[in-house]
Structure to design on (155 residues):
């Protein structure tokens, strides 16, 4: 595997995605729409949660916070599935030409996966910042790790 070829392919793939305005609008606007819907349909009402490990212990949690965390994971998964399909299935003719020009198919796949991983991490950071602004939750440190991991599963 030639690192310079992979680096060139990563740069070209990122430029290709940057030119697609639908991709940019979708990546920024879809989480905002999802969060707006959750924010409009939930309130500060406490939802009782019974803890299985503790005997007769019920904890009240505001319904908005877990709903926002859930919708962040759902938005991350949806966006990653879209980006994965966009990166892998589109522009097959370009990939064929690159293979004819000397690129190895493995290099093209590694480059696309690297771009997908970068998009997943950037979107996870974006969603985590939105969660911090909207919910001001005292969520555990696992939430910032859970969003990109869920996105990797869907991607």
């Amino acid at each position: 595997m030639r690192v310079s070829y992979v680096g060139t392919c990563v740069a070209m793939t990122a430029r290709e995605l940057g030119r697609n305005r639908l991709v940019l609008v979708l990546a920024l606007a879809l989480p905002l729409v999802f969060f707006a819907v959750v924010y409009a349909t939930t309130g500060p009402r406490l939802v009782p949660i019974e803890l299985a490990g503790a005997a007769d212990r019920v904890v009240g949690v505001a319904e908005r916070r877990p709903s926002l965390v859930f919708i962040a994971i759902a938005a991350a998964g949806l966006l990653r599935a879209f980006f994965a399909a966009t990166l892998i299935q589109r522009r097959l003719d370009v990939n064929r030409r690159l293979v004819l020009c000397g690129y190895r198919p493995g290099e093209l796949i590694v480059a696309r996966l690297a771009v997908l991983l970068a998009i997943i991490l950037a979107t996870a950071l974006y969603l985590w910042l939105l969660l911090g602004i909207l919910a001001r939750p005292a969520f555990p440190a696992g939430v910032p790790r859970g969003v990109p991991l869920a996105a990797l599963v869907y991607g």
Observations:
- The beta strands are 46-50, 58-62.
- The longest helix spans residues 105-134.
